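Morning F.,

Quick status update on the modeling queue. The single chain you submitted on Monday has been processed. Sequence for confirmation:
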Amino acid sequence: MSDESPGETMTLPIEGAAALRQILGILSDHEIEDSDGRLDALDRRLSLAWNGEEWETMSATERGIPMSRLDAELLVRGLRFTEMMSTHLPFFDQVCAVSDWIVGELDVTFPGVSET
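Structure tokens below.
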């Protein structure tokens, strides 16, 4: 299976998907190159998994999101970038804790992705 095709499914609560969408937004805001459209495609998969009302209330069941190893690597890089940009903020420890948890979850589905 190609690293580029979304071949694995990662089950996420809506709050987890919102956090991942935030990471994608941070990457987009900082003009991280998205020549292959991976940022937009992953954001679309995350957002379409729940309907508008579920996003508005942030209450919904967990959903499976198709992901590829390259998607996971992109998210890990985004999380590390967010940590780096947060070093002088008072909530830096919280950023690191959330980042470590997300990377750990990604590493379960994509072993070794945390080392990218």
